[in-house]
What does this fold into?
Amino acid sequence: GFPPDTAHDGMPHLARVLGNGHLLMTSQNSPAFGARLVREFWFDPSGDFVIKQTVEKTAGPTRMVSLWNVPQIPPDIEGVFIPLNADSPYNGGFHWFGGPNPKADVASLSPTLLRYRHTVDASYKLGADSPVCASAAVKAGVAFVERAPHPKGDYPDGASSAGFPVEVYNGGGAAGYTEMELLSLLRPLKPRDSFSHTLRWSLHELPAKDAADKAVVAAVEAKLLQPWEEPAAP
It folds into this structure.
């Protein structure tokens, strides 16, 4: 739920550098949820920044759990791109939480690609049953691409077998921001169980500065649709 459990988001984490140079951070154990979060950070030989997130159940009843990554980016981004499922059961290939927002700057560039731009005076959210777990933000001729595995199964939001591995939230107001959200599957978690969700972040130079340029759009979509690769062993 929201807001996050303060034991996981709002209290000090234990941090240490591992022998392989990775940074490991462990949250407090949540008395209410009976779980802690462990995050491991490193750079892959490819140059990608890797974040391995693990939830460890320590006590309490079995819970359905998803690891939900929520990077926040500034409002002056020129566009966020989301791959769409051409055979999606959702109108336009994506879903509006709470219904369409007339102030939103959202456009389906094709049956397989959605472009979103931040809106200052509105707050809204959308999700997509994307064929891959990926999204990209573009600014000044550079794309920030985030990717994660996309196994089949049920996700926290959306219909059964048509859930959303990718969501975008538009936070309006003076301190507005965009959330580029990647979700893991829902998993039942009982004490002494754990599961992980690994993300790859990367930066890519684009063929032009204009985010609306056709060559830029094509390059971004190609990056989004790259097959998932497990990070190289340390």
